[in-house]
Amino acid sequence: MRKTFDLIAAPAGTEPGDYVPRVYAARNLPATSSATLEVQHGDAGWRVSLGWHCPDPVRDASGNTNLFVDAAALLAPTVADAQWITMGAPDKAVEGALWRADREELLRIRAEGLGTVKRQQPPNHWKAHSDWSEARWSVTFELASWPALDDHNQLAFAIWRGAAADRGGLKAIVPQWIAVEP
Amino acid sequence: MSGSEKTNEPDTVDRQLAMVIDLNKCLGCQTCTVACKKLWNRDAGTDYAYWNNVETQPGKGYPALWPETGGRSGAGEVKRGEVPDLDSGYGRAWDFNHRAAFESAAKPAGEKAWLQPNEEAHWGANWDEDRGAGHYPEDNHYFYLPRLCNHCTHPACLNACPRHAIYKDKRNGIVLVDQDSCHGYRFCVEACPYKKVYFDPMRQVTTKCLFCLPRIEEGVPMACARQCPGRLRFVGYRDDPEGPIWKLVEKWKVALPLHPEYGLAPNVFYLPPLSPPKLDAAGRPTAEPRIPMYHLESLFGETVGAALETLRSERRKRRRGEPSELMDILIAYDWHKSFALSSEHEVSR
């Protein structure tokens, strides 16, 4: 499948703590308005490509204290009724892969609710390729095995635009799980 | 930390460790700054970061103009702040021409390479040292303000973190960062109005003063306090009526929090600076102190005048040869008495 999705700003109001929900309440437009998703499944496993407009890429945040890197994540539910918008819930985890523009390797992520994301080293067979050209990021995730997606055939993604100080719950997301064909 | 007990509910701490800093004794020597820096922040990502700094007041401070963002509203809500940048906020850690300066040491003065940054420097910690304000000789003035994390009773940084990576140690109220949980979002840096949470851009996590917790656990005062040659720092628990903190803050009411209007209930307190009188046009002393009261009130709140009057009054008593518990505490003849950490440990190191 290949499709372009309109994105929404993840709702800051549901973020944990009493700072982000209130201070960023007015931030209700996504810094990235749309993205193209392409999903392929074959003998080599899952190949998921994301592409989005980004006129001002931030590839490296190590040079200053107020820089945030561009990033994107894929997530899938580990149980049938795990919610995407809440990043799962206790005992209803979501898991996936995080790409950051400042890393060659992916990170494996897993969450059981907002504010609970844990980052881990990915399986050896998880790879990513990225390219920025003509004001556009193209990121391809090659995931030889991803049981959560195999089992539930649902996928979601998020995009962080560093130049807009996107980080954590401040991100552009698809509004709901996307059904993918195995 | 060996026995750290986390709590995200600041009101549930068992005790609160605190510090009092006597600004009338600060020499601006930066020994505290160096003691802290050498101990905790020598990595590439924290080369710009001074958990403890000493800035000249009036002045821009460090980071520049730090008092302008964050804190709590009158209703207690954490307000939006900003993340300072390295160039105009903190100032970068410069590389120096050490080799060139060393190799030219024996040359005539005109041919020497003097020690200087390899780049053009525009701003940095302590950039405006001793600049102050006013006009010589009528009312020129400055004083030194050592600053570190206030280990607030109601920390804005703790409330700002959506990952609950910032917590208080239940045993002593010290505010700590769990760097395994921190993802470097920097909401804590934004929210802290004192700008005493730092971001390590190399490791992509935040860092902050931990009140030298490993030393405290051994009954040893913080490096900044122990190394201070002026003996101007006092350390102890807020609820210890025999310790210097309780006496200076609660009993004598001469130690005041910095920017109480931020609403965070800091646990670092300051004895405000007395100052010599302004001079009139004929060069005669007036009744007005050189450091304007409005400036001190902007830093320490409305009670600063009463605190200064208590200090003046007790100083006069002492000069008359009368006893003064307050002056005896502040003069710190025996440095051991400046630190009341634990009955289990004798402070001897």
What's the arrangement of secondary structure elements?
The complex is a heterodimer of chains A (182) and B (349).
Chain A: E1 2-6, E2 8-9, H1 20-23, E3 34-42, E4 45-53, E5 71-77, E6 94-100, E7 107-111, E8 118-120, E9 126-133, E10 136-143, H2 147-152, E11 154-160, E12 172-173, E13 178-179
Antiparallel strand pairs in A: 1-3, 2-12, 3-4, 4-10, 5-6, 5-11, 6-7, 7-8, 9-10, 11-12, 11-13
Chain B: E1 6-7, E2 17-22, H1 31-40, E3 53-57, H2 86-90, H3 98-103, E4 143-147, H4 156-160, E5 166-169, E6 175-177, H5 187-191, E7 197-200, E8 205-208, H6 213-216, H7 223-226, E9 233-237, H8 244-251, E10 256-257, E11 268-271, E12 277-279, E13 285-289, H9 293-300, H10 304-319, H11 325-331, E14 339-340
Parallel strand pairs in B: 2-11, 9-14
Antiparallel strand pairs in B: 1-5, 2-9, 3-4, 5-6, 7-8, 10-11, 12-13
Quick overview of this protein structure:
The complex is a heterodimer of chains A (182) and B (349). By secondary structure, chain A is mainly β. In chain A, 5% of the residues lie in helices and 41% in strands.
Task: Give a written overview of the molecule.
- The complex is a heterodimer of chains A (182) and B (349).
- The mean pLDDT of chain A is 95.
- In chain A, a hairpin with a 6-residue loop joins strand 6 and strand 7.
- Chain A has one domain (2-58, 68-179): Immunoglobulin-like (Sandwich), CATH 2.60.40.
- In chain A, strands 2, 5, 6, 7, 8, 11, 12 and 13 form an eight-stranded antiparallel beta sheet that branches. In chain A, strands 1-3-4-10-9 form a five-stranded antiparallel beta sheet, with no helix packed on it.
- Chain A has two helices and 13 strands, in the order E-E-H-E-E-E-E-E-E-E-E-H-E-E-E.
- Chain A is mainly beta and 182 residues long.
- Chain B is an alpha+beta fold and 349 residues long.
- Chain B folds into two domains: 6-79 and 127-340, Alpha-Beta Plaits (2-Layer Sandwich); 92-124, no CATH class.
- In chain B, strand 5 (166-169) and strand 6 (175-177) form a beta hairpin.
- The mean pLDDT of chain B is 93.
- The A-B interface holds A 15-20, 22-23, 61-67, 114-117, 119, 167-169 and B 45, 48, 77-80, 83-87, 89-90, 156, 159-164, 183-187, 189-191, 198-199, 201-202, 204.
